Amino acid sequence: MCIICQFAASGAAAIMSVVPSLGVDTQQAPVPIKKTEIPAAVAKCTKAGAVRIVKSVNQKCTRVGKKLQWVSVKADTSKKPTSASGGSASSALPSAGSDCSTQGDQKAFSGGKMECRKISTGKFQWFKLSDSPAAPPQATGNVDSSQCQIADQRSVRTQPYAVGFPRSQEDTRTFGTLRLVLTAVDFPDAPGTDDEFVNAQKQIDRFNEFLAFESGGKLTATWEFPKTWARMPRPSTGYPIVFGSSSGDDQFMTDMISVTDARTNYSSNDFVFILIPKGAKEFPSPEGFYANYQTAEGRIQKYFAGGKFFYENDATYKTRELWSVWLHEMGHTFGLAGHAPFGSSLSIMENQDGFSKTLSAWDKFLMNWMPANGIYCRPSGSLGTVDVQLIPMQRSTSGFRSVMIPLSSTKIMVVESHRSEGFGDRLSKGTYGVMTYVVDTTLDNDRSGESVGQGRTRYASLVLPASASGRGLSDVVFGRGGSGNVDPLMLQGESVTYDGVTVTLVSTGDYDTIRISK
């Protein structure tokens, strides 16, 4: 069973009173000068108590009558001024490339911000970022992306889903509109609550956002979601379900259909998700991809019910999200093997509870969801030296999202960029960099060591910078991270080499500029 693999300060713009310099004809009466500007001291502001400095004059946001206005005040040297947004105010921004001390620190300016990031030397530097970065220039010398479609060449298959091209088994459509069902059942010993429906709807919304972002609108979903609990005839502990296997699911699924069929339309369903109440903390997680359970409107072939897996008393995983597990499980039925490169925690198919919940570049390519100009494909035999600017996988900006270098008929190097934003918002602030891995389409996944954290043979393997083992990614939500984890992201100034091909992260900023050489 798949799921056991866990493991803006912009102050108000002051309008200054400016008197233009005019020549005066002594033979004529002086021309009166009409002031049309509003004095800065009466410009409106929004946060009472905020202060700013305008032309060396200290101003404070003060309530005058019923309005908030900037009023000139004497400087209070006993306190550090705050900006209109509540952050630390400074008359001068740090310069790009100057030293800083804490990763993720930010200082805003009109149209962007400075961010503190770590570089290869271990130092921290300020980087200038735009709120609306322009699309980067496109590198040349690449070939059609079809030349990067390395064929799936496994001689022994331990699971049916693809590691290379084509996706030979697609059990759930990847274009068009899915019809999904979320039905809710509770138990005599674990009644459900209305609050859980509110959360479930948020999970559905996030699920839909993911499909829109990753597929570029190629795949959408409609949902059947009756917001009522159907009571099961047995307690939550009364079903012989084996965690990690679909065996023992028959009694549960039979009872589930019996109590929900009258109020749930199961017709033409692509996948059925079953909402289990939080009180059922010991209820396993039934799952099946090739079932044949009959309902009044047709059969259920694919289903998943999250129980103990979501609600167990585990401090590390207390914030597991339904939507990402739903998508991970469904992702397999899209035809993706997933679970590689092991330990990256930067793609939803490698780890649905990971730091970033985007698709990897290779999975997005396999799904035919990669934009037409999304891949810089160049066989290693034609490589000299080329610089490519990469769009982070968490953004929808037009441009190259990945560099792919075919190394042979069965191997390809993949490079992708990441940021702590969008579907990567679990990464701590200031996280950036590029991940490099090699896909070998002769290999399949050996997942036998996952339960004890061992990543055995995988079809994709990380290519790590030398310092990776001494640092780790940090997860702002889980609070885990540090030197105990391997950080798969290269920092500015770092390089990796595999099979004679070297990847260097030359510079970072709004985008990452990498240099590929051989």
Explain this structure to me?
This protein is of the alpha+beta class. The protein has four domains: 8-15 and 32-89, no CATH class; 99-130, no CATH class; 145-157 and 335-517, no CATH class; 176-324, no CATH class. It has five helices and 25 strands. The protein has helices spanning 195-215, 250-260, 308-311, 322-334, 361-366; strands at residues 51-54, 57-64, 67-72, 99-100, 106-109, 112-118, 124-130, 176-186, 219-224, 229-231, 271-275, 287-288, 293-295, 298-300, 303-306, 375-377, 385-390, 402-406, 411-419, 432-440, 460-463, 489-490, 495-498, 501-508, 512-517. β24 and β25 (512-517) form a beta hairpin. The radius of gyration is 28 Å and the shape is globular.
Summary, kept brief:
The chain has 518 residues and is α+β, with helices and mostly antiparallel strands. Helices cover 11% and strands 25% of the residues.
